[in-house]
Structure formats: structure tokens, C-alpha cells
Amino acid sequence: xxxxxxxxxxxxxxxxxxxxxxxxxxxxxxxxxxxxxxxxxxxxxxxxxxxxxxxxxxxxxxxxxxxxxxxxxxxxxxxxxxxxxxxxxxxxxxxxxxxxxxxxxxxxxxxxxxxxxxxxxxxxxxxxxxxxxxxxxxxxxxxxxxxxxxxxxxxxxxxxxxxxxxxxxxxxxxxxxxxxxxxxxxxxxxxxxxxxxxxxxxxxxxxxxxxxxxxxxxxxxxxxxxxxxxxxxxxxxxxxxxxxxxxxxxxxxxxxxxxxxxxxxxxxxxxxxxxxxxxxxxx
Amino acid sequence: xxxxxxxxxxxxxxxxxxxxxxxxxxxxxxxxxxxxxxxxxxxxxxxxxxxxxxxxxxxxxxxxxxxxxxxxxxxxxxxxxxxxxxxxxxxxxxxxxxxxxxxxxxxxxxxxxxxxxxxxxxxxxxxxxxxxxxxxxxxxxxxxxxxxxxxxxxxx
Amino acid sequence: xxxxxxxxxxxxxxxxxxxxxxxxxxxxxxxxxxxxxxxxxxxxxxxxxxxxxxxxxxxxxxxxxxxxxxxxxxxxxxxxxxxxxxxxxxxxxxxxxxxxxxxxxxxxxxxxxxxxxxxxxxxxxxxxxxxxxxxxxxxxxxxxxxxxxxxxxxxxxxxxxxxxxxxxxxxxxxxxxxxxxxxxxxxxxxxxxxxxxxxxxxxxxxxxxxxxxxxxxxxxxxxxxxxxxxxxxxxxxxxxxxxxxxxxxxxxxxxxxxxxxxxxxxxxxxxxxxxxxxxxxxxxxxxxxxxxxxxxxxxxxxxxxxxxxxxxxxxxxxxxxxxxxxxxxxxxxxxxxxxxxxxxxxxxxxxxxxxxxxxxxxxxxxxxxxxxxxxxxxxxxxxxxxxxxxxxxxxxxxxxxxxxxxxxxxxxxxxxxxxxxxxxxxxxxxxxxxxxxxxxxxxxxxxxxxxxxxxxxxxxxxxxxxxxxxxxxxxxxxxxxxxxxxxxxxxxxxxxxxxxxxxxxxxxxxxxxxxxxxxxxxxxxxxxxxxxxxxxxxxxxxxxxxxxxxxxxxxxxxxxxxxxxxxxxxxxxxxxxxxxxxxxxxxxxxxxxxxxxxxxxxxxxxxxxxxxxxxxxxxxxxxxxxxxxxxxxxxxxxxxxxxxxxxxxxxxxxxxxxxxxxxxxxxxxxxxxxxxxxxxxxxxxxxxxxxxxxxxxxxxxxxxxxxxxxxxxxxxxxxxxxxxxxxxxxxxxxxxxxxxxxxxxxx
Lengths: 283, 156, 747
Known about the structure:
heterotrimer, B: 156 residues, alpha+beta, 5 strands, globular, C: 747 residues, seven-stranded mixed beta sheet, 18 helices
């Protein structure tokens, strides 16, 4: 079922104020269109008035500062994959960018779009959770910056008012010294929506875990940071018992469902297996 | 909602179309410009049959609103040949048997051309990744890989 | 012959000028859509047109408007073009709309409301077979077959071992990348003309004649370039062609109907789901003594081609094995889902999947390797198949099998993987399947088709081949031109294969069943030889002529006599016997033979299976064009890998719930292994230049080969496809639990 094209309007904003003013008037933002145009083509797009962000200069940049890297809302996956600082300091983000859709879709799709589409299966969301990213939200009236972990409130519910735009994503460069393990289990190797995705970041002293961050996609109504499992691992030495216990903890921490792509049992088991695989790789 | 005038360059020619801003670039190419070489396979950015090169980047034209193509430079399968001479990848597609039913071929060619433009001498894995957004149901992709490889060797 | 002549229409395809139906646009053209049922089984009480749509601008066709018979003529007259009152499956067409605005007509479709009284649906084959709820005929069975050879009931008592197994397969979507589409025009003088994407123009004509009560000359069907078909455009095009034609007839305007992907996947045919039960008697030394096989397929709501699919699946169920006592009983069952239909392999992939998994099980039971057990039982020249067809050709299947295993480095890998698997979470394995595929229509089918082709020289000396064989990517245009050129001594470039148009080409039967190269190309060869003979007889040609001289001779002949056209009609080779009642005799003109070897890795962390290497060795008679033949095998294997590991139709209340390419998973360029293709060639005396059929064969072997490899890798035996990571992980967890349980009780 297609949408009726004349019902829709699209304007291209060239300045941020133009876009935020339109948002105040009830328009909705569109960036790469790789999610919204699919809905539009299927006749399921709930908005009629769209403002494109692709020509707003300040949203098109990846800005590297001494303490952080900021990714503008209109930056595509392809640019993220190719960015030298991101490749060096946030390799799991570049990897997650490569998981997303096809090359053609990476050439259009944006990280910010992926976040505000608010799919629990978003490929880059767990990575941003693990890197403790922050998001900057702006409206015609104000701007605010919040930790990304507070952004998703429930299934398709966000800390994002209708007049607000997700302006940029900020990554603290203190992340450098983490070792990472990241894996997407999709329906196939490319062009796939994840059945489950997982990232682990860890800092070790010998075989003792000093610090660990774990996050997963498609295992809960929102992209999930697994704090309880993290807590249970901090200060532990890697052993079979610890691995076994952590796998059990994470299985109970996630709340997956059965859907068109996979089952609750599978997601729970794979979650435990991926964590175990990650921890074994640290030995 | 009203229509708007969209100007862009398609296959080297400046064109202007008056259209709804949300009309898909795919439909603009096929219906307004009669460039029917670009195909629709799924309408959800999944099969790559509608792939074109827009400002040197491969895109699925079913996911691009017409307005977003303003001022762009677009190349479709009809623009690959120069002066009646087929692009070397088109020639290699013929030789290797890379086109069977032919419906994925225009998009596959655009993905191949895009790959060769940023990676002139791709490994088999790079070819596989470069074409992984284009579904082909006929060939099992093997003849297509061969065509891309052969075209790459010619460019050395 | 045997050379890689370039594909005839390749230049048009790579330059984007090839004309598919959606590329056509006629002045005043309307766009048509179908209003479909969302209920799987119901009675229509009322059709309501919602507000806000300018209905007076629309052309609307209901069942009651149909001028002729409301039946899609094929084999059984059970399926209407538009459901008059009773709905038998979800997505059943009820009403047609056309409007000049494509967007508006699509929106209008959502504003037609069918008010229905639901009836209890049947979705399950066993439920259907129980006939507690009768949804078709008296017993929900479209067709049954029974093949009996020897006396299978006599073998059980004395058998050293009896091995049983049950195997099942699910629906598979053809997923041609070009959705179904038709463009129809109506003219009171000339009647109906339909152009579109199809395999069988004369099937469409046969279905549209009674729909409009028109004679054949007033129903003209023209094939457009066809963007993949794989069986999916064998019978279904009659439906959409009928719909487009009805709208054109009612509106008096050209009407184009193009399905979008979601509609195409939800509403059109898929491969029949199946269940096969095997009971096999075997001696201690590994001789097959008896095979008792029950094969059932789910046909969906209407008969369509289910009986014919069942027939092929039944005949292939005992595969390439010699056994004196065989019984195959089969049934095609009705359920309330959209009709399943033709798909490359046509029943054989289902029953061969079961057989080639079961043969591994039997081998294991008698303590032989899968290859040794098969070698002891494979058919040889002079042996008879299940239907009693005696193998006349000098095929050495055990040798073919050994060669394939050597090409795959099978025995080294078996050993190496065993060592590697001890330490690794990735378990590697290798497996194979040995199988056959009959080419051409089954039994008396080819005899009844009376296929005809013409070869005609034109005034400029070039030659035209006229047949109803369609090009859908498989290479019809190219091989028919090659065969004609070789038989005539003409240049390949001087031979054109005409695109089928029922007013211009003779009926050579449908483009199905791997019959083009073997049967139709043979007719092209015969007609070409008679044309050449005519030139000799007229003194226009003498021995040792060049293609140039041939062209001149044609020109000269036509200048003198006005026309140079010859025909050939299919004659069954002598001594061919088939009993349609008992299902005995020569089921096919010839079989092609193959051994496919798959190497897999199974990730025990995620249950994901990757095919790492694939060797496809086959004997298909003479290979007419090595590049095209390789492409056919590779493409078939790719579809078969999809069938085995990726492609699952998710059904909810009789509807396909994952009817999008995002959620119906076919392999991409990174999911497939390098598919290595090898041929052996034993020229077949009745095929064109020695060719047999090869298009469907590669669909048959990969699924069992892969599941055999998975068993080799993991020790886990799976009997169902698609085999998804979810299934693997479930069984792995169970296996681990039971090992732990055993370890626990031992302690």
C-alpha cells in the first residue's frame, strides 16, 4: 500500500532555526530517509509535513575536540565508517555503522535517525550506550544535553519533545582505553535486521575485570545497557564459575520477545552465549 | 500540497521537473523523465534494483524524495555508456553472463561502478560487500563477481 | 555448439533498454488494483465503498460483471478470477479497481470494505486429511498417486534392519525481482491484448478465452521481457492477466496492473510445503530391500498445479536408487492458504530432500559411510527406477559421486574437521546428496502437448525461430539461436528468436519442466535441418557452404519462391511407454544426474550456519552453452541454499506475515559460498545436439547436502527445512543438557 503523494509536504531547511521553527509548527524532521521513506512507501508514515535536515551545514559535521567527538544529526553511516578518529577511538561504532543496511543505505542513513527511529533493534544504539554517549536536543526555545542512556523511555518512547531535534551525538574521548567485543546476529550477513546485537567494553588488570560495560539490542523494548550484569562482573577474576554466573545474570536481565525474526528463547540463549564468548576471549 | 520545481543533472543533461517534493526519485526518473532502466523491486530500499549514483554516492532511488535530488548530479544505467560505447563493466557483464533475467542488472551495475570508483582493485570480499545491497535471484552472484573482477583488471 | 555465445538480449539488459511490462505506458492508460480478502475462509455478505473517494471516476469490476466463465482455466475448474461469494483463502481477489491516478487507486483500495461472515478455516495438512472440516471436494484431497514396484509388504519380516524417518519442508517464495505485472487493452474489433511478465503465453490465452467467451484469434498474449519467474510466472499470470483484461474491457482503456512487492509475496503462489515419511528395509550388508514412502504436499485453497507437482514429487521420491520393492503413496491436500504452485524443481526438491537425508540415516544404521551405502545401491545402466523406467544411458553414478567427493576434497576434510571441531566453538562439516531430475513433462505429458516450432528465413537472409518458449533469464533466446545456427550452418548473429506473441508463434507448450533445451531445441534443430534441406533441394546450397553463403542462399530462395519456412512437431521417441493409471513406465525422456557437496560451519554460540564451499557436479547431456549452463547451476544452488537455511514464510491465520524483502530472507552476495560447477556430458540421443534439461536439477541437492553436513559437523540430525539458527541452538541446548544430565548421573 502506497502513500498518496499529494497528501505530503517536504521542505529543505538550510538553517537550524528554520528547522526548529517548523518543528514548533508541527513539522517532523527527516534526514537520510532510510526509515521514514520505507514507512512512506508502505503507506504507514504518520506525518504529513516533513522538514529535511540534509542541507543544514552544522548538522553535517563530525567535530573532533580534545575531550570529545561530536556527530551531527545529518552525518551518514558512510562518513562515520570512514572517519579516522572514530575508527581509532570508537572502532565498535564504525563496526556498528557497517552493520546497518546496505552501502546505498549507509550513504543516506544517519546515526541520529537510527536513534530517533527508536527501534530496539537499532544496530548502533548498544554501542552508543556502551560508549556512554550524550545527545544534544535543541528546539526553537532551548537546548539541552542528556546522557543517551536516559533517552529511551519505553518502546518507541523517547526524551524528545515534538518541537525538539536531536542535534548531535557526543562521545567522550576518555573511552580510548577500552577493549571491545561487538557482534550482530542478524537474519543474514548483510542487509539484515538484528535478532540480537551485543557489545562489551572492558578494562582489565591481568585476568581481573576492573571495569566493564555491556549493552545489547533487540532484547528489550529499548536498547539495553546491562548494568546488573556489569555490576556482578566488576572486580571478578575470569573463571568458568564467573562466566557461568554472568551468563545466567544477563539472561535474566534481558526481556526479549518472540517476533517475526526470532524467538524469546533464542534471544535469551544467544545473549548468554555471546557474553560467555566475550568473557572467554579475555582469558 | 503543492508541487515544486526540482533541477538536477541526469546523465550529463540538466533537467527540471515540476513535481511533488515527496515523489520518489525512482518515479521521477521512470515517469517524468522516461528513464525506465532504473527498476523497482521492493519499494523499501532492500533489493537495490532502483540504485542510482547521486552526487557520486550509490543510493536507492525509492528512498529519496524528489526534493532531495535538487541540484544533484545523477547517473542512471542509461548514462553508463559514453558515445554509444558500453562501460567496461557493462561489457564484462555480457561476457561473464552476469545478466540473466536482467531486472537487477541496472542496480547491480550502478553498485559495481560505484565500488570500482572508490576501490579500483577490489578483493572478492570487497566485491561481495560492495554488491551485498543488491539482490539477484537468478545468478547466485558468481557471474557478477567475475564480471566486476574482470572489469577491475582492465582498469589497472 | 558448446561455446559461450553471448546472451542474445544481454546488451539491452545491461544498457537499461530492455522493456519489462512496467516500463510500458500507453496513452489514456489506467492503473488497476485488486481488492482482496483479509479473511482466510468466509462468506461475503456485503461490499461497502467508503467515503472520501470519487468512486464515479473509477472503473469497478465485480464477479457479477464477468462476461464469460468466472474460472481460471488450467486443470481443474475450481478457482474463480473473482470470488463471487465464498472466500477460500486470505488475499483472494474479490473486486477490481482502475483509475488514471496510480496513487489514488492504491488509496481507494483501502476504502473498499468486505463485510464477511467467517467460516472455520483449515491450515494444517493433518487437519485437512482428517476431513473433519471439508473445504474442498469430499475429502480435501486434490489428487492422490500410488507407485508400486515389487511387493514392499513382503520385505519387512526378513529385513535385517528397518529404518524410519519423517521429513518436512516449508513454503518458499520464488522472489523473482520483477513483481507480477500485465498491461491489457480491449478493442471491440480485435478483442483482448495482454502484454506482460510470464512463462506461458498459451496458458494465459487458454484462461482468458472462456473468461470473455472469445476465440483464440481475439485473445492475443504477448510476453514482455520477464524479470525472473522460477515457476512463479507459470500459472499465476493467468489471474493477473484476466484481471487487467477485465478492467480494460470494462473501461475501454488500456489498464496496467503491477503488483507491489508486499502484494506479490502475500497473494501469489509459493513452493508447496511437504511432509515425507520413509520406512526402509535394508540388509546387514547395506542392500536396499524395500522402500515405503508417504509423500504429502499442501496445495492451498485451489487445485492449480498441485496434482502435477505431486506427480513429479512422487516419481522422484525414491531417487536414483535401485530397489526391487518400492511403494510411494502421495496426496495433495487442500488448506485455506493462497494456492501453492510451480517453483523450480516442482515437487522434486521436497521429496528428494527427504530421501537424501534418509539415506544418510539408513547408512548410519547399517554402519556404512553415506558414500559407500549409496554406491552399493545407486542405479546403473539396465536398472529400473521406481516406475520401472529402465536406464538406457551408460551413467556411472558411483563414479560421478566419487568425482564430486574428490573435487570437494571430501575425505581429507572429514578427517581435518573432526580434529578442528574438538577445540573450536565453530563446528565444521561436509555432506552431500546424490540425485536425479527428470527433464520434460511427466509421462504422457509431452505426447499430449504436440509441441510445434517454426523456423523461417527472411528476405534479408536472416533467420527467425518461432516458438512459445519464453526468455525469463534462463537463456532460451540464446540456446535456441545457437542450435538453429549450428543446424543451419548460419551465423549466430543472423538468427533471431522471436519474443512469444500468440498471434505470431506456434504453441510449443509451456516454458517449464526443463524442457526448452531438451525438447524444444530439438524441434528447432529438426526444423532447421529441413529448412537447410529445402535449400539443398532447390539447388541454392551445396556442401561446404559458409554462413555468408547460407544467408545468400536464403535471400535467393525467398526471391524465387516467396517464402522459406519449416516446422517441426514433437514425436515421442519410439518404445516409450507410460501408464497414467498405474504410474508405471517411462516417466521422463531422460534424467539428469548430479552430486552436490556442501561444506558448512556451525557457530555453536549463535546457531548460525554458513556454507563455506559448494561443489556441484552434474551430468546433463551435452552442455549447449557453458556460461549459461554454469549460471543456471549457480543460481539454482543459491536458491536451494536459501531454501535450506534462510527462507521462511511466517504464516499468521493463513496469511504471509513477513511479506517484505526485509523480513523474508534470501541470500545476499555475502551469504553464499563460491559455488564450483562441473559437468560431465553424455550426449542424449533424443535431445538437441545431445542436451538434456538442467534448469531445475540444481534446486534439488543443496538442502539435503547441507543438512547432512550440519549433522557431520554437530552430530545433530535435522529433518526440517528451513533450518534456522533458532532450531540449531534449541537442539544444541537440549543436547548439552542431556550430556550434563548424563555426566551428573555418572558422578
